[in-house]
Amino acid sequence: MSLQPLLIALQFLTIIPVRVSIPVNPQHIGQSLLFYPVVGLILSSILLIVAWLLNTQSLAVSAVLILSLWVVLSGGLHLDGLADSADAWLGGLGDRAKTLLIMKDPASGPIAVALLILVLLIKFVMLVELLGQHNYLAIIFAITLARSALPLLFLTTPYVRQDGIGALLVANQPRIATQWLLAGIALLSVIFSGFILLISALLVFLILRYCMQQRLNGTTGDTAGAMVEILETTILITAVII
User: Fold this and answer.
1) Measured on CA atoms in the order 64, 207, 83, 170, is the torsion positive or negative?
2) Predicted TM-score of the model (pTM)
3) Is there a contact between 123 and 69 (Cβ–Cβ < 8 Å)?
4) If you write DSSP's letter for every residue of 177-195 in order, what string do you get?
5) What is the C-alpha separation between 22 and 190, in angstroms, rounded?
6) Can you list the alpha helix ranges (DSSP code H) found in the chain?
7) What are the tens digits of pLDDT across the range 117-159?
8) Per-residue pLDDT tens digits for 74-125
9) What are the extents of the domains in the chain?
10) Number of neighbouring beta carbons within 10 Å of residue 77
């Protein structure tokens, strides 16, 4: 099997330097969705190696450095989607066309800035707690399950824009392989972390998908990115409080 789908997934979801063959095969773009969970595992593994290297530092210092690296490695991609979605949801006033238009505006309003700060603060506090508990598995699951939700979203939800990488992903997604992949991830999640993390992630996924359907009749790249951030935060919180 070609490595191109994995390289495409790494190039799209991270700033890790990889070389993708040009021209890109649209089939490989669709197949890259199968490797989103792998990208989550790679990211979380890097963060845990850094956590191990910082084990002589205070929990707060370790958490802030790990969170900073987390943001940098992902290129702020999902945070950007969260900011755009927050502005669009508030400014769109329930109107689909207006919501989609605001999402294309590169400027961030006060609600976007406030939400980004809130999400990063929550992640920082949860990381402090999880590092203190040596609950590294929860960090792996937060990052991996959130990215696993992307192929599930594209499998079950129409993509409302006709152009861009999202449209290519949906048009070329290997649907049967995606279903098997998601079933395997769900099984592994239950085996290694129990039902609670998976159920909390699924509940939030369904709520977010419902909101997207109600407002947009589907999803966009921005709302998909926002979903990743919200799911990561949800899983971290759940892991701390259970």
Assistant:
1) positive
2) 0.96
3) no
4) HHHHHHHHHHHHHHHHH-H
5) 39
6) 4-13, 26-31, 36-53, 59-73, 77-91, 96-103, 110-133, 136-156, 164-171, 175-193, 195-216, 221-241
7) 999 999 999 999 999 999 999 999 999 999 999 999 999 999 9
8) 999 999 999 999 999 998 888 899 999 999 888 888 999 999 999 999 999 9
9) 4-241
10) 18
